Amino acid sequence: RHDILYIQRMELVRLVSHNTHKRLVSCLQSQLGTDTEKRHKKLPLTTLSQAMQEGGGQLGDESLIGKMMDVCGEAESRLATELMQHEMMIERDILDPLNQLAEVEIPNILKQRKQLAKLVLDYDSARTRYYQAAKSNNQAMAAKADSLKDEMDEALNKVEICKDQLSADMYNFASKEGEYARYYVMLLEAQADYHRRSLAALEAAIPTIQMQQDSWMEKPAFGTALEEHLKRSNREIALPIEACVMMLLETGMKEEGLFRIAAGASKLKKLKAALDCSTSQLEEFYSDPHAVAGALKSYLRELPEPLMTFGMYDEWLQASNVSDPDKRLQALWVTCDCLPKTHKANLRYLVKFLAKLAQDSEVNKMTPSNIAIVLGPNLLWAKTEGTLAEMAAATSVHVVAIIEPIIQHADWFFPEDVDFNVSGMFAMPSHPATPDPEPGLDRKRPGSLVGQDGDSHTPRKDRYLSRPNLTVSALYVVADESITVTETPTEDLPSPDFKAVP
């Protein structure tokens, strides 16, 4: 009874081992039993790698996609090698032993069980014939009794030998059952090791590929942090700022309402895309200065951090709130001087251009005040929640009070001359050099207020020191939303809770 139950369980072990072997073989991507080279060649990862590298070759080194396909195809080939080695190990250490168990070892034991049953029947038949001959009164039959007894003894001996062999094989199977169970653990361990090696191969390849991509790729300038764009492009002035300024110097300085009149959406989108690609094909945009001005505003507005920085927002406000006009300018200069180097350089470049634009205000209607109204909210805003239009409306009064005097007194804030064609990649504009708009301005900057003799020098008073009582009346665009500002003297502008009317 015990042997029968054991044989039944052994048959069940054979069945489940056979099914597991079959399913595991179906998981393999290479051809079972073939040599290394053939297995590697037939892997889907290998054919993918070949297709990628062939595609890279067809596109050529001039194509970023082609370059990426080539180097990533090499990485896929390394993964294919790891997979091929993994599957060969699975076949050797797990599939072959499982197949041996299910198709050889257990079937041999079961065959012995059947052989024993046959030998037992042979023994029973020989014994029956012997007993019949021994009891028979027939002399002929009695004479055969001795030979029949020998036959019965031999049959019994065969039964005993087979039974001993069967018992030995069954005991051997029982003793190795833990080893058979170990195959399934080995499968998981092999898979874990394969994935670790594959991951290691990817982690070794990806940084190198990313470095190559970064060195090859012209990443968009719009929406990218100023420092990152300048470092990546090896520039001093952001490409969109320089390109737009150079185009406006050529064709936009006399354009009425520059930065105030919205450009066509499709033309603006096309120009932004061209600047993102660092293309030099910008000739068609010279004839549309409003699109160029719109692209410059968009670039400033889409910076993750404003050109005048989040970190110095409070300092700018405090400086603009100083009541004395001279001291207010001094405070603004101190704040400006504390800007990060890259931000300060780009602000200087832009302000010098805006001051140049304001010199033609009789024609283009863009006074420092009007420029500050339409462009200021794109240069400085608070790091708070809400839409850009809401933030601009909440801070526009403060921003105008900051930007307007900087533009008015650009040559005092930034006395050095600016070569607008800083990169040398643009044709110089045909406009003549612009004279200093404030030849009589002679303010002392902080740090130079004390002379060599130790006496204190007070900044000279002249007609530029007192902020004029200008009237603001404009319809301007912030974040592509129209905001109407009522006519109010700038010296009496409302407090920060000023609400713009959409």
Automatic annotation (TrEMBL):
Domain called Rho-GAP: residue spans: 224-414
Matching Pfam families: BAR, RhoGAP
Q: Looking at the record, which segments are called Disordered?
A: 429-466
User: What biological process terms from GO does the record include?
Assistant: regulation of actin cytoskeleton organization; regulation of Rac protein signal transduction; signal transduction
Q: Supply the alphabetized keyword list.
A: Coiled coil, Cytoplasm, GTPase activation, Phosphoprotein
Report the InterPro entries cross-referenced here. AH/BAR_dom_sf (IPR027267), BAR_dom (IPR004148), RHG17/44/SH3BP1-like (IPR047165), Rho_GTPase_activation_prot (IPR008936), RhoGAP_dom (IPR000198)
Query: Per the record's keyword annotation, is Cytoplasm included, yes or no?
Result: yes
Is Phosphoprotein among the key words of this record?
yes
Where on the tree of life does the source sit, at the highest rank? Eukaryota
Localization recorded for this chain is: Cytoplasm, Cytosol
Q: Name one GO molecular function term.
A: GTPase activator activity
Q: Which residues form a coiled coil?
A: 131-165
Q: Which GO terms describe its cellular component?
A: cytosol
**Where along the chain is composition biased (Basic and acidic residues)?**
454-465
Residues forming the BAR domain are: 1-215
PANTHER family per record: 3BP-1 RELATED RHOGAP (PTHR14130), RHO GTPASE-ACTIVATING PROTEIN 17 (PTHR14130:SF3)
- Under what name is this protein listed? Rho GTPase activating protein 17b
From which source organism is this entry?
Seriola dumerili
